[in-house]
Amino acid sequence: MNKFNQLLSIGLSIGALSMASCSENDDPSGFEAPSDNAIRFAANTEFSRSGDITTNNLTSFNVYAYTGTMASPTLFMDNVAVNKTSNNSWTYSPLQYWPANEAVDFYAFAPSSWVGKNGPLKPVSYDSYPGTEDIIYAVSPDLKGNAGAPNAQVIFNFRHALSKVTVKLSSSNENLSVRVTNVVMNNLMTKGNFTFPTESTAGAPTVESMGKWSDQNTPLGYILHVSRDRNEVILLTTTPTDMSDTGSKLGGPKYMMPQPLTWRSNGYGDDTFIAVMCSVYDTKTGLKLWPNENTPAENVVEGSTFGDGILRFPLSTSKFSEWEPGCHYIYSIVINANEEMGAIEFGNPTVDTFVDVVTNYE
């Protein structure tokens, strides 16, 4: 039996991305020099990557604040919108002042829609489908202002609440023509509850300073590409094609709920995997090589317009079995074949980091 030969390499490296930081507050002229004890906000800029929320493309965020204790909190700022002005200062209304002899716990997030009216002290329900939205959060607890001190500002360090996923396809065998019609990530949980940490999100992440996901449910498939006609069929080349987008246009990441990844039954049951519908042809003769009469039934797509087969790639690997928040997972699938159309093989997986979002208030 002729079998399709694939080489799957999930290219990944865990390490910090270098950021070029440029302060927008080196000159405090962005604010009227205060002599009061008002609470004020500011922001710094750093390197940004397309699609991610960073402080140089962040134009607004929302803030809840509480006095009292965790057991008995008192609402101090109720979902206040903080907006960036044309001169790179941050404003909100009405202006709030530091309470005397009381500490304040601040919770910030963006975009404004993902934390509801119940606020951040209770688990926040969230639906990550269709995966096009990056969400961030920050906590600065137990802060006090100094009466009469100028620029008494809150310091936030924003973190990503979701994982980032990119899928790329290529082929380096010039004797083959690999034509891809559909790509889907299957059985991924889309809904869950996010719990804000109570510790500060400034500094290196710790278990106590990271938000947590729970009660994940509603598994769905994330469509990365669908060919509605022959013009949208993708011919793979040696240059990886970014499949991470909804619809037929290419490019762009998916922002997914962090979750365990399952691979127990080769793409059946509750397995989480990438499904690639495609056909393979001989480049010179145009002869269709796969699927063929010897292809197992589970690899044949019944009723396919283009007579495609289906390939299943596990999202779980020997290196990791779940997605973590703030990490960028790049799946690079290289579809090749030898003369015998031999066995399926997998390369070594790696992980790339997600860009951190940092907002400083001085």
Describe this structure in words.
With 362 residues, this protein is mostly beta strands. The N and C termini lie far apart (68 Å). The protein has strands at 7-9, 60-68, 73-84, 90-91, 104-110, 124-127, 136-143, 159-160, 163-170, 176-195, 212-226, 234-235, 241-242, 254-256, 273-282, 288-290, 309-314, 327-334, 345-346, 352-353. The protein is built from no helices and 20 strands. It folds into 2 domains: 7-14 and 162-353, no CATH class; 28-160, Immunoglobulin-like, CATH 2.60.40. Helices cover 0% and strands 35% of the residues. The strands form 3 sheets. Strands 1, 9, 13, 14, 18, 19 and 20 form a 7-stranded mixed beta sheet that branches. Strands 6, 10, 11, 12, 15, 16 and 17 form a 7-stranded antiparallel beta sheet that branches. It has a 6-stranded antiparallel beta sheet with strand order 4-3-2-5-7-8, with no helix packed on it.
- Strand tally is 20
CA radius of gyration:
25 Å
Q: How many helix segments? A: 0
Average pLDDT for all residues: 80
What is the string of helix and strand elements? EEEEEEEEEEEEEEEEEEEE
The level of helicity is under 10%
Q: Please give the alpha-carbon distance between the first and last residues.
A: 68 Å
Unreliable parts: 1-35, 42-50, 338-346, 358-362
**Inertia-based shape:** elongated
Tally of separate domains: 2
Structural class: mainly beta
Main sheet, how many strands, which sense, barrel? 7 strands, mixed
| Beta-strand content bin | 35-45%
